[in-house]
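Run log, item B.
One chain of 128 residues. Sequence copied directly from the ordering sheet:
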Amino acid sequence: MGSLTPDHIWGETLSLLRGQTTKETYAAVLQKTRLVAANGRYTIETPTEFVKSWLENRFTLPISRALGTVLDQPLEPDLLTFVVRDYMEPIDYSPDGDTVEDEGDGFYVCYREFILRGYARKFGPTWG
């Protein structure tokens, strides 16, 4: 594996997987995944329990093959572990396209919506 980072390895793996699925499936299931550990066992972080389950039940073998191709070594599917991300990433809801930032207090501030880690409250069109 050399000096390749998990992000680089996963980016190459996703490039290979993109051709093995539809654009819709790629966007809904694979695009928001991340390789977070690559030390003989490979941990893939997913945004939801649904995505985790879908990958475990339908896509473990293609992922292990693509990841093995990138690493230039055979990779057994049982070396893959899927976990659900335990935090929310910033989401861009702002009308001008600015990135939404974590304010450091556990809140993400965005257009007409406040997101507290794990919870979201959306306000109606009259708020603001």
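Observations after the first pass:
- Residues 91-95, 108-115, 120-128 have pLDDT under 50 and may be disordered.
- The beta strands are 34-38, 42-46, 80-84, 107-110, 113-116, 119-122.
Flagged for discussion on Thursday.
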